[in-house]
Write a structure and sequence with these properties.
alpha+beta, Ribosomal Protein L22, Chain A, 2 domains, single chain, 28% strand, six-stranded mixed sheet, 8 helices
Length: 220
């Protein structure tokens, strides 16, 4: 396993039958308080399963024990307590899908996934798209696909830069609609679809490392 890659793993939560006791043991005290604060059961499941997936991936990638306690700093650094190990991370979930991005070296990563739904794309893109981006989405032969590719790119850009919403809205990321991989606004990016085309994703990073995307498989 190359330690200089950025790994993105995703899965459909419904594929894994994880007991509630095991899931609760996954969370640290801070995340457990956040979990209990969610009123929506679906939101709780997304939250706890994303932490479960992160721990499972760290185990498979870097032999990090799932029992190791952690601290998640700024939603971007996964620090293993009582050890010197620290990972650059990003987490996203939408619908039944969860995804995590992990690197074993310091870098900034932004990951977003979104479930496709029928919307008024022409009106919605006015909220967060530049005039150029709006034109691209509205004239694209696959408007829904182009909308979600832009939306996930904007969300990933927000996470990787940790900048203001206004700045993200004003940044032209239209290149992501023309090319699935490349550089935009000073960041490397990768976009695509998951779940038989029912979800879109985008990854952005300040690193030139290879981005490897794959569906998570549980190894016993």
């Amino acid at each position: 396993m190359a330690i200089d890659n950025i790994y993105v793993y995703y899965c459909d939560m419904r594929q894994f039958n994880v007991g509630q006791d095991e899931l609760h043991r996954v969370l640290n005290q801070t995340d457990l308080r956040r979990y209990r604060g969610f009123k929506n059961t679906s939101r709780q499941n997304q939250f706890v399963m994303s932490r479960w997936l992160m721990k499972q991936c760290l185990k498979q990638l870097f032999a990090q024990a799932t029992s190791d306690d952690y601290q998640l700093s700024d939603y971007s650094r996964w620090n293993i307590l009582d050890q010197s190990n620290s990972y650059s991370v990003s987490i996203s979930h939408s619908g039944h899908f969860i995804a995590v991005a992990i690197a074993a070296f310091p870098c900034s990563i932004g990951l977003d996934i979104e479930q496709h739904k029928s919307r008024n794309f022409t009106e919605l893109v006015k909220i967060f798209g530049t005039p150029s981006e709006q034109n691209l989405v509205n004239n694209h032969p696959e408007q829904q696909l182009s909308f979600y590719r832009l939306w996930t790119a904007k969300e990933a850009f927000l996470k990787v830069t940790q900048s203001s919403i206004d700045h993200v809205f004003q940044e032209n990321l239209g290149k992501c609609l023309h090319h699935k991989v490349g550089q935009v606004a000073g960041y490397h990016y990768l976009t695509g679809e998951l779940g038989e085309g029912k979800y879109s994703y985008a990854v952005m990073t300040d690193s030139a490392a290879k981005i490897q995307v794959q569906e998570f498989q549980l190894h016993h």
